[in-house]
Every structure is written in C-alpha cells, then in structure tokens.
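Forwarding these from the shared drive since the link keeps breaking.
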Amino acid sequence: MERQKQAYLYAAAAVLFWSTMASAFKVSLRHLDFLGLLFFSSIASVTILFLILLIQNKLSLLTGYSGKDYLRSVVLGFLNPSLYYVVLFKAYSLLPAQEAQPLNYTWSIVLVLLSIPILKQKVGFKSILAILISYFGVLMISTRGDLFGLTLSNPTGVALALGSSVIWALFWIYNVKDRRDDVAKLFLNSLFGFAFISIALLIVSKRPMLDIRGLAGATYVGFFEMGITFVLWLRALRLSRTTAQVSNLIYLSPFVSLMLIHLVVGETIMLSTIIGLVFIVAGIILQQRWTKTTPVIQSA
C-alpha cells in the first residue's frame, strides 16, 4: 500500500479513537469517581506502553538515559498524566461531555498565549483575532448561548475544563523540547505520573471502587487515550509526505465526538454547543494558517 494511504489510515484510526474519548470519560465516570478512573486508566496505560516498547525492542533505551532525563520525566509525568487528567476528569464529572470536550480543545490557542512569555514569541494582530474568535466560541458554550446574561453553566467545571487546556499546553511546550524517543519518554512520563496518582489516593485515604463496567472503561481510556492512539498518530506523521496532510484530520475529531456523545452518552446536543465549537475550530484553523503551524498531538 502507498505510504500516504497508510498515513491516512493510521491518522483516521487515531482521530476515531480520540473522538470516542469524551463519551468514554463520561460513561466511565458513572461507575468510578474521577480519581479511581485515573488510577485504573494509568495502570492500563503503563502496561500497554511497556508492551509497545517490548514489541519495538526499545526497552534498552530506558537504561541509557541520564539522571537529568529521568528528572525531566518526573516533572512531565506530574503535568501529564497526573495533574492534567485529575483536572480534566473532574471537569467531566461536573459538566456535560458536550461542554467539557470543546473547552478542553482550546489547548492549541492557549499554547499560542503561553508561547509569548515562555518561548518569547511575538503574536500579531491576526493571531489575536483568531484567539478572540475561538474564545467567543468558549463563551457561547460556557453560557449555553446566554451571551448577554453571562451566566456560566457550571463555573467550577468551566474553569477546570479550560484549566486542563493550560496544563496540556504547558506539557506540550516542555515535551517538544525533549528529544528522547517518543514512546520511551511517554512510558516514563506515565510511570512517574502513576506514582503521583497513587500518592494522591493515599493522601485522600480513598480506595478506588472495583466496578467491572468502570474498570472496562478505564482500561479503554488507558489503552487508547493515553497509549496506543499516540503511537498510531506518530506513525501517521512519519509516513505522511507532509504533516499538514494528516494533521488536518484532527479538525474532524470534536464534531465526530459530539455525534458519539449524543449516541452513546445520550446527551441532547445544544445548538449553542455546535455554534461554539465551530467558532473554536475556526479560530484554531485561522491561527495555525496565519502562523504557518500545524497541530502535532491531540488532547482529549
């Protein structure tokens, strides 16, 4: 099969799995609390990433890293998966999936804002306009269309969903500077992240519930949100002639996700959600075209 066709197949599979995540989070949270979901998902994630390293014959890479490399993994593991998913899963426990998912999707816009103080990048008028377009969509979703009343549907949930996009953007900035093998560093991040998650459970003195439906959902999330899908996406990027040819498929993900939220979770999708999501995605597309950048990794 032609390399570019293979790239599209890998990318389509990755986008499809990512599109199921909002529904998977919401359904799983019916049977586990947010910390329990994260705990069991992390076990699944560490397991599948270890197996991928084993299959790819890359376990030897882990012994070649320096103490500084491992310290970097500790910091990145704290950001993601531990802190990021604590905030994200809590947001999903407070908000309808159709609101939490698009608000989290604003991470690439947050990335532009954070690049100003962290990467010392300059942002022009067009980028500011694109950001304003996206955040008009955020306002539309957060107020459920009541733009003049400005009453947030759930202030805490909205703050957490937007906060998760900040954490993911910070993780992306520092992770992209890390030149180690992608799967190896993701495994180490997940391993140290699991340690932080376990400590959090000990601090709150809470034993995760053992519910077969919740465990099944957590395993799915760990395998496909935190593990396999990332590897599929990297494979697509490597096979594609240009990054843009497969990266553009990411824009389908939030809309497919909305359909699944309706079909699987049973939420009635509000018009304000659709309009808001269109503005968010439009702002992201405009910003990336005007700055000649394309997304590299998807957030749930």
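-- next protein --
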Amino acid sequence: MSVSIHPAAFISPSAMIDPTAMVAEGAHIGAGVSIGPWCTVGPDVEIAEGAKLISHVVVDGHTSIGAGAELYPFCTVGMAPQDLKYKGEPTRCVIGARTQIREHCSIHRGTATGHGVTHVGEDCLLMAVVHVAHDCSIGDRVVIANNVVMGGHCQIGDFAVIGGSAALHQFVRIGRGAMVGGVSGVEADVIPFGLVIGNRARLKSLNLIGLKRRGAARADMHVLRQAVRGLFWAPGAFAGRLAEVKERFAGHPLVDEVLAFVEHGSKRGLIRALRRGAADLDDDV
C-alpha cells in the first residue's frame, strides 16, 4: 500500500510516515517527524521536527505542533470548537515543544469571537481524556491529569497542576504554580501558588510542595504565607484586607505576583477560602 500524501504537501525527506496515514495538500511536515498508522493530517497543519503522531491521531485546522511533541492514539487536535457562533473562521491551535498529549484528548481551535487561538505551552503533560476547549491558554510545564474538562477561554499559568476529573468553568484563571485537587469544580479564579479542593473548590492553603520543588527560598515562602493569610483569612472586608497586604508586603516578588493576579480583573471572581484552611498555613515550610 502506498502512503496517501498529497503532492503539494511539504514532507521532509527524513520524515517517517506510515502507508495508512493521510497527509493533505498544504501540510508541512518537518525533519524527523513520525506519523504512525491511520493518522490524518489536515491541509493547514505544521508539524515541527521530531514530533510523533503515534497512531489514529487527527490533526486539523490551522494547527502548529511543536518540536518533539508526542500525540498518542485517538487524540484530536485543532478540530472545530464546540461553539454555535463559530462559522468556520481560520482560527488557530498551537501545541508547544515536547508536550505530551495522551490518549483520547481533544483540543479545539480558537474562535473569532474569542482570542482566535487555543494554546498549550511547552513541556506539558495532558493525560488521557483531557478536554481543552476553544480559546484556552495553557502555560509551560503544566500537568493536567486524566479526565479533566475545561470550558472555553480558561487560562492556566506555568507549572500548574490540575488533579484528575476536575472541571474548570469557562473564563476561569489558574495562577502560576497553583494546584487544583482531583474531582474539584472550579467556578472562579485560583491565585498563583494556591491549593484548592472540593466539589465546589475552595482555597485550602498554598501549594508549598510545588514551591519547594521549584527552589523557592524558605524565607520567601514564609512571607507569601503571611500575605495570603492576611488576604483570605483576616477579618474585615476584602478591599480592606487587600489594601493592608499591599501596604505590608508590596515589593516582595511572590506577593506582588499574587496581588497583580488579584487586581488584573476577572470575569469569574476569586475562589473563596475554606474557613479551616488557615490552619494549613501554620505548617512548617
């Protein structure tokens, strides 16, 4: 059997394409790319050097797959969004270098009424059956566990970890280094370095393990802990707590990142704190 490659497609001589794969006119396949059995590559797809489509993968739309990325069986990338307003506009999907997209994941391209692009960063791991909706933006080195679903326009910062079967409401923001517990429903924004859990997720503490793994100094974690305690667990109205934290801790890099996130503006508001969660901030770091 001969491979089904349209003659107008650009295929690097070093690419390896299974005879059962289909590569459409206009596709651009880089050096050392491996396209396995029964994969389908659309006409506006670019696949960078060393990427692997293991088998039964569909990549469509104006989609870019980064160097060294790995796409596992039955995942779909760049398909049309599940948005009734979408009328076939040439929106985009971008997958970063070395990112792994495991079995049965679905990642949809953006919409003209949104950002126009769905973006997954570099060195991410999307475990099986993750759904990334239109116009989502995922940072670098993000880990998303099995069966996580997210609505459109979600933003997830670098190094975040999303636990299995969590559900993220559309327009939710997850800050850098935050962690979402498994089977949590996230209806509002999670501050950088925050740890949220629950059927309707609530802020429990800081993701101290993540901070330690990325080399945060003990003294910096103590300052961040004091600031977050003051912001979410001190008495009084939130506006007053925010002003006090800014006065006491402004200028500290980790605290400034949290404050900038809080003051950026949000369509969903901030995740509320568990009352008993303040006790977790007393743990030794």
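The helical segments are 208-213, 218-232, 238-249, 253-263. The longest strand covers residues 202-206.

- D.
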